[in-house]
């Protein structure tokens, strides 16, 4: 496969998101704009300007009309995808590290940083998906993380729970209506921050990536760890592929040590694991720095990775990827047909 | 004008001598060639005001894809922000295509990668377990540092038939000198080097190994390298597949080379695949002749 290189940012990438149809990619970096790209050929649709600080996060609503972004300028902004217009600005006390729309796009959560005497919080806003409509200022729900700040968070199926990954390696489950903490489990090594949390297509389970060099597949209902993927480098991102039962992990040596190592030793590769057998099945090289974000096309045809090197690389999977099956899978299939 | 006597490359800039001041540029002409390619001749003025003629030979391939109407509609959206001024299609300053990456998921992926790595690190691994041994007193130090250096002769010098000298030399292991004699022994003649050193040289990825390379002829012009690889991979590890293709049409020329890691696999493949029917043609498989 020939990757498409997208050079729309001057600084390290922070997050990449595909929209639900998998035709547009949104990327954010520590420079101050968001880029929108067509996934099939890497053409840039446009850029969104307005933030005054490093951008940490972006998310697309399920209908692909709006995007939300969070930045170090303590704001969350809502944009119209088509025109690049900023529709709404919500102010917070501290930087916003993660935003995510719920399944139907009616609500948006934002994870804020713990800093300057403020505790880390998860805030929820109501969203009106009509770009013409007035958005409300009100924060419907505020969850304060008293023990350890949340680094990532997301909505479970039917927006029933809010799941948050914390700096101390725990994962907690909140009731999405009341904000009450229902569960808190030590999933990763203590004091190893969880760096990413991405959902399966039906949002009944999710994958977390952590600096403790593992990624874990976790059930939403009881926060049970179903699978553990062990890597040899701190992980920054993990994603579950639709169509094929794989997961993709991205990471690499810390940004600070990058200049002291060459690309080979730094382990700046996207690692593919089989989702069920938890076995590594291949790697994709290319970045010159750690991978900060990995995202998979919801239609399963491609994946994109964003690195500390400022590049986004979009890979369209080729036949070998789709053909690959385990011997047992082939046997099971053959028996099923008989 | 459309047919230039000496055929230019597919995209050539020709500087026309006439520095006429009239800025009227001839219309762009497009001619269709016999092999299905198109020749586009366009004119423009360069920075010095000279007229430049650009001849490009392009092949168009239409790739049709059915997409969701929502997706199709989005493709028509006007660009904005920093891309507002970009024309249709990817802009060269933000989008480029990287080098080809071969990604084939496999369960023994780790093993394949390790093989390559051990080749490089094998010498180090071998030396890791080796201990320094004094030839005079068999202590764990260099002979030159031996406290008995001046008082005792090295063990081996008393005669190579000495029983004690035998095991002492054997410990030296691969890479060591032959049998305790001080004469120079070239690396490939040394103990153990024949097996390990030999592989290492031939195992290089890009090194042509004619010993285990097959020449396949009478290949269909529709064949793809991947298909050949799939066909031959069942006999063993294929290190290289080369399918000769026409530069202009992209069709196969009818012959290919397949290199195997092991000659035995190649022999097996040669035997089985010779006369195999592939895409309406019968393959002829034989060992490649050594390049003269």
Quick recap:
Chain A is mainly β and 338 residues long. Chain A has helices spanning 263-266, 319-323, 327-337, and strands spanning 4-6, 13-18, 24-29, 33-38, 44-49, 55-60, 66-71, 75-80, 86-91, 96-101, 107-112, 121-126, 139-144, 150-155, 161-166, 170-175, 181-186, 194-199, 205-210, 214-219, 225-230, 235-240, 246-251, 270-274, 280-284, 291-296, 302-307, 312-316. In chain B, strand 9 (277-278) and strand 10 form a beta hairpin.
* Percent of residues in helices of chain B: 10-25%
Strand percentage of chain B lies at: 15-25%
- Structural category of chain A is mainly beta
Radius of gyration of chain B: 33 Å
**Oligomerization status of the protein chains:** heterodimer
Global geometry of chain B: elongated
| Overall pLDDT score of chain B | 72
The biggest sheet of chain A amounts to:
4 strands, antiparallel
Number of helical elements of chain B: 6
**CATH fourth-tier homologous superfamily of the domain at 210-287 in chain B:** RRM (RNA recognition motif) domain
**Biggest sheet: strand arrangement of chain A:** 1-28-27-26
Specify the CATH class of the domain at 210-287 in chain B: Alpha Beta
Task: Give the strand tally of chain A.
Answer: 28
Protein structure class of chain B: alpha+beta
Biggest interface goes to: A-B, 46 and 35 residues
Mass-distribution shape of chain A: globular
Average pLDDT number of chain A: 90
CATH topology of the domain at 210-287 in chain B: Alpha-Beta Plaits
